[in-house]
Amino acid sequence: MNELLKKDLNELDLILNQVKAEGLEFLTGINNRPTSISNQEIAYQHLEEQGTGAIHALAEFKSRFDQIIVASTGPRYWGFVTGGSTPAAIVGDWLATVYDQNTQTIKGQGDISAIIELETVRLLLQLLGLPDDAYLGGFVTGATMSNFTCLAVARQWLGKQNGYDIAKEGISGKLKVLSATPHSSSVKSLALLGFGSQNLIKVKVMPGNREAMDLQDLEKQILELNGAPFILISSGGTVNTVDFDDFEGILKLKEKYNFWWHMDAAFGAFAACAPAYSHLLKGWEQADSITIDCHKWLNVPYENAFFLVKKEHRLLQMESFQNSNAPYLGDPLENFNYLNFLPENSRRLKALPAWFSLKAYGTKGYQDIVEGCIARAMELAAFIEKSDVFELLAPVRLNTVCFTLKEEEQVFEFLSALNAKGIVFMTPTVYRGKQAVRAAFVNWRTTENDVLMAIDSMEQTLREF
Ligand SMILES: *Cc1c(COP(=O)(O)O)cnc(C)c1O
């Protein structure tokens, strides 16, 4: 054995204690760590022939890179849709690394950690009030890959409706995909899957200040397809204003027309945890496939998301992801192996952070996280609405606040100045043609005081502007 590896093996206790100390220092100091950095100059180094061992590598890492690690897992990082990590999720994530399983199967003699993954999916379905047994779910790296996975099965379905096997024969002929406000990652998935992103047929949004799909326009577009089957990508929470498509209305159309109903509920799915908001998802348990992120509102570390595909589509799913050309025999769920049901073959035990966090905090814990985030969004929105300088661009429907300056053309400059202060972080967007800012509340740590600190920093930024 290499000398340095031997030494590290003997010093595991010391090494892991050092990592614990580092983790503790970081997590307890998170409130004071800046949410952005200004000095980004890091000189790249070469790979040495002689290594230094884990303790020295950690010390070197800290001295060189600590300064560029921002508090994105802290309470005032409201950019994109950034979750945090609950303590139990960190336990699961660390242990997933320690156990280092390659999660694929639920039967056999080797690694059968897929059992844990399937149990975690069941726990999530229970958390979200979805039927336990209707979906086959699995973990992927993020909602992008979840959209990709769901749309790959949808594509296979669509091919079959047109009489061919796309997984084997490729895309022959034009396939129809419709959506109103798809997340960019769905459009990216369409590009990866060979649909061609520009072939997406845009459905109008509802009148008024809405991002949800106009179902009258949808039906009109469906009629123009002359009975051709298609895929519908619906939104369970758009990113700018968290608008939800009318799922019950979509269900009615599903009785009349032949389409695959995909739903991107990356973070909106967690509305199910808050009784006052769960109605937004009414009817979603009928979707053919659903995308849900865990590294957002479930508050587990990156990279973590899952997909749900109705079990009745399991053959299509297996045709899409089958890892060999061997003819398959019997029901694919009988001899279940994840490598035939999702894009990756080898994978870590991705379910473990979610398993730990769900066990540790239960439905009440997640109800509190979700309701807390919604309350914080309302608090920020109340400030914006009262202000003479800011303008709220859409009502707060769930957990994001979309706003601009009354002098809209200055808003991005304001945002850079605000972000540079490092107290709070938000991201730029364009909403209905206006330059705007989004603040998304997805972190279990965020308190009323954090909103006040952010408001303070916003006001100070204005004064210096
Ligand atoms: C974040 C998000 C995605 C993409 O998710 P990643 O985890 O970044 O891959 C897709 N859809 C929606 C609605 C999202 O909010």
Automatic annotation (TrEMBL):
**Which SUPFAM superfamilies has this protein been placed in?**
PLP-dependent transferases
The UniProt keyword set, sorted, is:
Decarboxylase, Lyase, Pyridoxal phosphate
Q: Which cofactor does it need?
A: pyridoxal 5'-phosphate
Read off the Pfam families from this record: Pyridoxal_deC
Q: Which InterPro entries match?
A: Aromatic_deC, PyrdxlP-dep_de-COase, PyrdxlP-dep_Trfase, PyrdxlP-dep_Trfase_major, PyrdxlP-dep_Trfase_small
Query: PANTHER family from the entry?
Result: GROUP II PYRIDOXAL-5-PHOSPHATE DECARBOXYLASE, MIP05841P
- Report the protein name in the record: Glutamate or tyrosine decarboxylase
